[in-house]
């Protein structure tokens, strides 16, 4: 059996990573004594409002928004990974290129690090004046993915 393609496995790993803010959001409400209705989970936001302190509700909203943003970023991440795998596999043999010509492993590690920092910033920063930190992390992560796709495109020609 050949070794696993860990960058490819990073795609479902990112999906699992992406739902962590949702689990945290639920725990934020539970810590305030509110029990979300799992039979109608999408109604939690409107039904919890006014039943927990405002600061708790806003943190809940930010955690849910972080989860939504993670899911919105998933196609960009998946395309970057798949394009890089394609570029590396199609050009490595016979062209003298190194197996990690697109630095895919580095990209995957950097993506997860930046997205983790983004999630923490999204959930924890409630002050508008500090919110550009979150936006900067979003730009950095998106830029990493765009650059990764560019590197793959350059190899593929």
From TrEMBL:
Keywords: Membrane, Transmembrane, Transmembrane helix. InterPro entries: MAPEG-like_dom_sf, Membr-assoc_MAPEG. One of its GO terms (cellular component) is membrane. The keyword Transmembrane applies. It is found in: Membrane. This is Membrane-associated, eicosanoid/glutathione metabolism protein.
């Amino acid at each position: 059996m050949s070794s696993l393609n860990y960058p490819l496995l990073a795609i479902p790993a990112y999906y699992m990573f992406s739902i962590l803010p949702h689990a945290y959001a639920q725990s934020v409400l539970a810590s305030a004594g509110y029990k979300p209705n799992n039979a109608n989970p999408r109604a939690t936001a409107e039904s919890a409002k006014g039943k927990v302190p405002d600061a708790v509700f806003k943190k809940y909203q930010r955690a849910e928004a972080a989860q939504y943003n993670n899911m919105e970023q998933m196609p960009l991440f998946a395309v970057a990974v798949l394009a890089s795998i394609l570029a590396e596999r199609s050009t490595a043999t016979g062209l003298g290129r190194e197996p990690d010509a697109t630095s895919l492993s580095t990209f995957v590690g950097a993506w997860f690090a930046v997205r983790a920092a983004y999630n923490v910033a999204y959930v924890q920063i409630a002050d508008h004046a500090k919110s550009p930190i979150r936006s900067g992390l979003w730009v950095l992560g998106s830029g990493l993915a765009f650059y990764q796709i560019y590197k793959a495109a350059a190899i593929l020609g």
